[in-house]
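Sync notes, pocket subgroup
Present: LS, DG
LS reminded everyone that the earlier model was apo-only. Rerun requested with nicotinamide-adenine-dinucleotide included. Inputs:
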Amino acid sequence: MKIGFLHTPDDLRCPISAISLKKYQKIGVSVLAESKALTNSDEELEGKEGIEIASRKDILSQSDIVYCNTPLSPSELKKLNKDAIVVSFYAPFNPENKMDTLKGSDVKAFSMDMIPRTTLAQSMDVLSSMASISGYKAVLLSAEKLPRYFPMMMTAAGTVKPAQVLILGAGVAGLQAIATARKLGAKVQVFDVRKAVKEEVQSLGAKFVEVDGSSDDKAAGGYAIEQSEDYQQRQKEAIHNSVKLADVVITTAQLRGREAPILVTKAMVEDMKAGSVIIDLASSTGGNCEVTKDNEEIKHNGVTVIGDSALYNKAIIDASSLLANNIHNYVATFVKEGAMNVDMENEIISGSLVHPKSE
Ligand code: NAD
């Protein structure tokens, strides 16, 4: 059985690591890869035992599983081996999804962003791996941009107050951002609609600001749901009070398949101290801050606003290694005794199948 890894110019994370390569050998899967797909790997992979460098054409026609960081084009899907499957990120819930690339094709396509959020699937969760790096890098980036210290400093010339960091959304990225900002000595306040995170936030040494009356839905699989108008209004008032005092605001709030909620309005940004910094990790789905521009750094009324949902690229070697491990753990569910086994009874496999819909 063969798995082939293709290069994409717009996502240069390496999908194979030295460790995952060994693990593929153990489960009897041969690895083919385009040489360019190996950029940013944790170790030099070309020439290592268990990997064959091949052309894109050969990978498409010979592999049983084809992996690509961004989805294949319709014309490339036609070049696949009969019964081959593709694995990528189709973001079917996102308004800017890649589902169109699959129209008219009968290939089975699996999307790693659709893997159910169960304990069993945690080791395959690329979204969490990347969110954690992004939360960490968001804090480092904000510390670099802020014209102040993060920790309290007692010097002969006087005492410097610690920076006030406000984190909106305490999911995977937010929790990592809290831990990192605390390690740097900042005072941290946190908002989240899910009250379940309160204890975790407090155990990291941050203050959880509660707004009563939020709604949860267990059926949302760990994701937050849209809140009532009344709640949103009261939450905005509470956030406004915290934003005014903050030196740094890091926003991470997402709603699956919908635009991110606006939590920091233009008026709030205009109430911030000059020199303050906002890092908006939700920018690819519209952003949590009204003035955010995706993939841009702007100044609004003296406040630096950075919109970047892919800050994990700033630690691309580790992002690649974690991605490679996640892919291996996922692909292993398709392999039984060295042969392909697409078991639709397995909820990880059926949950992540995005095409064809009738399966
Ligand atoms: P996410 O990226 O969808 O959202 C980030 C955070 O923003 C969430 O905590 C969410 O509650 C919050 N948020 C959404 N709307 C908000 C609003 N209006 N105001 C304030 N906060 C708002 O979430 P995530 O980081 O991917 O994770 C969400 C949960 O799922 C976490 O509890 C996480 O531990 C869990 N999870 C479980 C698994 C697993 O079991 N395999 C994997 C990943 C995450």
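DG: The mean pLDDT is 95.
LS: Residues 63 and 268 are 53 Å apart (CA to CA).
Action: DG to write up.
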